[in-house]
Structure to design on (508 residues):
């Protein structure tokens, strides 16, 4: 059974319009407490959090964290025939003033904060130099592959560049950074190192959400066994075919129907799903064939990864929640389009099952992925972002120190623990705008921006965090005052950064 990508997105759009009343409804359905986890699950999780918080209180700071290496530099771009010639001068390390005089058409942005990150790939190493520029959406950067050792020291007064030769669809181009200072790696002050340590205390750093060898899948609308390529992998389809043969058929989706017909279909489908569940529970589940085929399908999916949501629901009900969680952790769901919420549904199911089976290690990571919307999609338009909630309230009711957790995953360090969780600044800003104590969060962020002991890059990240927070407050009366306080705080940034970071919001 297949659906086209267009139908998948259409189904998602229409399904979203069938939402329950806002009081207790979420994108994952409704619960009596208005949260995405039931009261019993919340109680189980609170016991774990209480234990972790007590453990953290007596935990000594046993790790020295360093910020990303940082320097000051000029960013230069040049296109056309001169780019090829300029490349030779950069190889010869022509002084910056002489370069400017020789290539007056080169575009230059001066006195930027430059950070350096090293990523070790399977086949090579990539060194990324990123410039913090405050008046555009994307920051200028230079990505270099190969031996990273030559980019780790003695860069003051030197050029770093990336050259792209002329192609049929474009001119030659040169992207370069001239380093005014040597790169320094500031030590994170203890009060901020404790924030990072709190993250590692709560978010287990020894494991990830998905099991090693987990398969990428196309979401809830696709039966993976159709693409297995092996006639031997038949236990999953055999079970599903048995099920669909035994269960009375449901209503047919009206492909070219009117909106009224579509709404009637969803109403009828919901009632059919209930009748189906009752029929399976009361009749089908008592048949030996059902149990045998389900067990065989589970064993096959556990090894191969050819599972799907419907199968996992039956495994949870008729085998165990732990078995269903194992299947879900063995596949990574990729969204088909902006309206395809299947990656978020999958993560929420992992979080719920992890909580119910007291598997804290995967619960918090899965919930944070939902908060940060950390999922792969074939395409993702910004128009779909608003309805993806952050669910910070679920963390607050667990008695997690939410400010410390949010700020801890916002900070960037050069020597994190393996599997350390880093958050999305945009999504975290939105989450903080929905938190219970916005006043405290504002003061914490502004104090971090003002703190001269914190490195410049992390102060700038908190600056962006505050902007996203202010924007998502959705209060036109409060917004100007927040931005005024932010612009006052950034005056304490060093050198030219104070002027560059002054935020002038677009008209809303």
């Amino acid at each position: 059974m297949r659906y086209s990508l267009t139908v998948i997105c259409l189904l998602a759009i229409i399904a979203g319009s069938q939402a329950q009343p806002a009081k207790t409804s979420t994108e994952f359905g409704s619960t009596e407490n208005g949260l995405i986890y039931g009261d019993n699950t919340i109680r189980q999780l609170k016991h774990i959090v209480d234990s972790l918080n007590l453990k953290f209180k007596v935990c000594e700071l046993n790790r020295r964290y360093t910020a990303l290496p940082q320097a000051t530099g000029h960013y230069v771009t040049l296109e056309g025939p001169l780019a090829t010639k300029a490349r030779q001068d950069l190889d010869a390390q022509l002084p910056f003033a002489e370069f400017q005089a020789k290539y007056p058409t080169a575009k230059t942005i001066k006195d930027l904060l430059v950070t350096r990150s090293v990523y070790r790939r399977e086949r090579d190493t990539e060194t990324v130099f990123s410039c913090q520029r405050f008046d555009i959406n994307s920051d200028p950067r230079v990505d270099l592959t190969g031996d990273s050792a030559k980019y780790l020291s003695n860069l003051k007064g030197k050029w770093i560049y990336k050259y792209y030769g002329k192609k049929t669809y474009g001119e030659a181009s040169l992207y370069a950074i001239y380093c005014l200072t040597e790169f320094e790696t500031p030590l994170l002050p203890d009060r901020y190192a404790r924030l990072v340590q709190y993250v590692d205390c709560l978010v287990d750093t020894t494991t990830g959400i998905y099991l090693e060898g987990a398969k990428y899948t196309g979401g809830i609308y696709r039966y993976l066994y159709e693409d297995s390529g092996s006639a031997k992998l038949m236990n999953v389809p055999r079970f599903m075919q048995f099920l669909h043969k035994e269960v009375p058929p449901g209503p047919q989706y009206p492909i070219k129907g009117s909106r009224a017909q579509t709404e009637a279909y969803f109403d009828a489908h919901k009632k059919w799903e209930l009748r189906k569940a009752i029929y399976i529970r009361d009749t089908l589940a008592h048949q030996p064939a059902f149990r045998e085929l389900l067990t065989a399908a589970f064993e096959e999916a556990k090894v191969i990864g050819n599972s799907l949501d419907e199968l996992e629901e039956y495994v949870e009900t008729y085998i165990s929640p732990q078995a269903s969680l194992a299947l879900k952790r063995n596949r990574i769901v990729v969204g088909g389009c902006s309206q395809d919420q299947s990656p978020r549904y999958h993560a929420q199911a992992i979080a719920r099952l992890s909580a119910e089976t007291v598997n804290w290690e995967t619960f918090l990571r899965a919930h944070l992925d939902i908060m940060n919307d950390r999922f792969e999609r074939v395409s993702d338009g910004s128009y779909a972002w608003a309805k993806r909630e952050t669910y910070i309230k679920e963390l607050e009711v667990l008695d997690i120190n939410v400010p410390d957790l949010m700020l801890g995953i916002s900070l960037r360090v050069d020597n994190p623990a393996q599997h350390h969780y880093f958050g999305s600044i945009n999504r975290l800003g939105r989450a903080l705008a929905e938190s219970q104590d916005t006043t405290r969060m504002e003061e914490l962020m502004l104090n971090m921006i003002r703190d001269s002991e914190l490195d410049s890059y992390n102060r700038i990240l908190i600056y962006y965090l505050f902007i996203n927070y202010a924007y998502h407050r959705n209060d036109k009366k409060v917004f100007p005052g927040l931005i005024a306080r932010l612009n006052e705080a950034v005056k304490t940034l060093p050198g030219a950064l104070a002027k560059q970071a002054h935020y002038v919001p677009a008209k809303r």
Q: What stands out?
A: The two ends are 46 Å apart (CA to CA). The chain is about 45% helix and 10% strand. Confidence is low (pLDDT under 50) at residues 1-22, 220-230.
